[in-house]
Each structure stands twice: as C-alpha cells, then as structure tokens.
C-alpha cells in the first residue's frame, strides 16, 4: 500500500458501460490495437504504392470491392478502429490529482481534447467511400489519405516506451524501426519511378525491366517486372543506401530519384550515429539493473546481519521489489 497508486488500492464505483483503464480486458484490447497498427504500418504504404496500378484498378472494378483480400482486411481494421474509439470514450483515466475519473462526460471531454481527432481521421474508410470513382486522381488521393492511419504509431510509441529500460528490447525496437523505415522508403522509391516512367525512359524501373528482360509495353498494363521484383529491388536499394554499402547495380538517374537518394543517405547517417552509440545506450540502460542488484544485495546483507525471521524476511524482499518496480530506483522523497 506504500508503493502502489491510490487508485489501484480502491476500486472506483463505475457503471456497467464504463471500463477501467487498467482492467485485463483493456490491456488485451490494447495489444489487439497494437497488432492492427503494426499491420497498418506495413501494408498501407505497400498497397498505396505497389497495388494501385491501372491493371489492378480495372480488375477491382470488374469483380467488386471484396475481391481483393487486402480490401477486406482494411475494412476489418477500420471497423476495429471505430470500435476502439467507442471503447476509449468509455474508458476511465487518471487526472492530475491521481484520481480515477468515471464520469462519462469528463471521459468524453478528455478524449476529444486528446487523441480523438487522430483516431477518427485514421478510422475513416476512404477507399470504401470513394470506391468506383473511376478517376486516377481519386485513386491516388485515396492511397494518400489511407496513410493517415500511420498517425496511430505515435500512440504505439508511447506504449512501447515502458520497455525502454531493457537493453535487449531497445536494440530489437531499433532494428524493427530501421527495417520499417526502409520499407516506407522502398514504397516511396517505387512511387517516384512509377510516376516518372511515362515521361522518361531513364528511370530505375526501365533499367530494371531491361536487366530482367521484361520490357514495358504501353498497350499492355501487365507488362514489365512483377510486383515482387519491383518491391525486392526497391527494398534492396533503400537498405543499401541506408547502410552506405550500395553496389551501384540499382542507381538513381532522374533528378527526383537523385534528390530522394540524397534524403535516404542523410537518414542513413542519422541512423549510423544511433547504432554507433548502441553500446553506450545499452550500458546506460543496464545501469538501472546493476543498481537494483546492488541494493538487493544490501537488503540481504541487512537481513542476514540482523537475523530477521523468515516470514518478515520474505515481506521485506517483496516490499523492496514492489517499491523498485514502481519508482525504478528513484528517490521519490527527493
């Protein structure tokens, strides 16, 4: 009771339609939303860049919206995001006085002033609203609006911040972020080549088609390299540019491609500085663990010196562990 927050010691009185923010169901639901956001972070840029060609649009208009499994998955994600908005409107929160707010009006007001605009914009099914528009400009606009779902990554970053004290977790998150950024840049790299290909024959897509022997035919929208070839080549280029180990077999030719390559190399330099300090980051993060074991050793020496009975010894060790997990070794009185 000395280390736990007051609101976790006394369960507040709530109605049946109000959900406690620390309840097991809310924790389970947050993990579901986390997986959906990660799915969105991977497939939304990919579908916006690689799956919006003329051939795909004609096939989609002929068989309907549900003929594409990605469309069905996106629709399910949108529905779950809308359900998440409803749940957040009925989920308690802790105010500045460390008191749990259970009044529906205050909860709604707090959520509307916070994450509600971002969550609402990310949950709008733009592709379903303007389906069968028959315009290439509207299809491009749809793909751009769908990337608004990536705004939810900000909330995910805040939830993953609790694992920042573990060195292995930080290293794993850095690697995942690096691969995710490379994936996004690969989608942008392909989009640049796709937009410029009708106006020039020196882009990287034409060079790739020449190398693979799959030349483009303007009368056949399905000609040229496959989506797999284009994505793998684009990801190979962005990873080689970020790590500065490019071999030149995929090179920028147009001004737009060169400008984008410069931006990728700048991002690569930023990440090189981060990975260069990984050892220092892990050492700093493990310093908290070292302090914990040092303090725990002192507690055991204190117990052994004063010959504390077994029952009281176990309570003392559990108290220290709970206090450390709550304060992370910080002197709260200071």
Please tag this protein with its features.
flat, ion transport, mainly alpha, K_chnl_volt-dep_ERG, 334 residues, Ion transport domain-containing protein, 15 helices, 68% helix, single chain, two-stranded antiparallel ribbon, inward rectifier potassium channel activity, K_chnl_volt-dep_EAG/ELK/ERG
How would you explain this protein's 3D organization?
The chain is mainly α and 334 residues long. Among the domains are: 11-165, no CATH class; 280-327. It has 15 helices and two strands. A hairpin with a 5-residue loop joins β1 and β2. α2 (24-50) packs antiparallel against α4, α2 runs antiparallel to α8 (136-146) and α10 (167-196) packs antiparallel against α14. The radius of gyration is 26 Å and the shape is flat.
């Amino acid at each position: 009771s000395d280390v736990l927050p007051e609101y976790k010691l006394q369960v507040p009185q709530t109605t049946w339609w109000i959900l406690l923010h620390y309840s097991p169901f809310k924790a389970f639901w947050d993990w579901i939303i986390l997986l959906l956001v990660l799915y969105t972070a991977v497939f939304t840029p990919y579908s916006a860049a690689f799956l919006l060609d003329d051939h795909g649009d004609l096939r989609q208009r002929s068989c309907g919206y549900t003929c594409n499994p990605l469309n069905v998955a996106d629709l399910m994600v949108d529905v779950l995001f809308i359900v998440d908005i409803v749940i957040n409107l009925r989920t308690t929160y802790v105010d500045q006085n460390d008191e749990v707010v259970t009044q529906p009006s205050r909860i709604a007001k707090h959520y509307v002033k916070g994450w509600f605009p971002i969550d609402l914009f990310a949950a709008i099914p733009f592709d379903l609203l303007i389906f069968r528009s028959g315009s290439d400009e509207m299809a491009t606009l749809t793909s751009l609006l769908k990337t608004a779902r990536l705004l939810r990554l900000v909330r995910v970053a805040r939830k993953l911040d609790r694992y920042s004290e573990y060195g292995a977790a930080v290293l794993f998150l850095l690697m995942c972020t690096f691969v995710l950024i490379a994936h996004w840049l690969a989608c942008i790299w392909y989009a640049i080549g796709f937009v410029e290909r009708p106006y020039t024959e020196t882009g990287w897509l034409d060079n790739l088609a020449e190398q693979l022997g799959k030349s483009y035919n303007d009368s056949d929208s399905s000609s040229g390299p496959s989506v797999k070839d284009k994505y793998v080549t684009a990801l190979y280029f962005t990873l080689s540019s970020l790590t500065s180990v490019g071999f030149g077999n995929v090179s920028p030719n147009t001004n737009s491609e060169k400008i984008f390559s410069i931006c990728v190399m700048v991002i690569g330099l930023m990440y090189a500085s981060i990975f260069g300090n990984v050892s220092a980051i892990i050492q700093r993060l493990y310093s908290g663990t070292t302090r914990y074991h040092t303090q725990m050793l002192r507690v055991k020496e204190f117990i052994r010196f004063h010959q504390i009975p077994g029952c009281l010894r176990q309570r003392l060790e559990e108290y220290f562990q709970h206090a450390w997990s709550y304060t992370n070794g910080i002197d709260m009185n200071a």
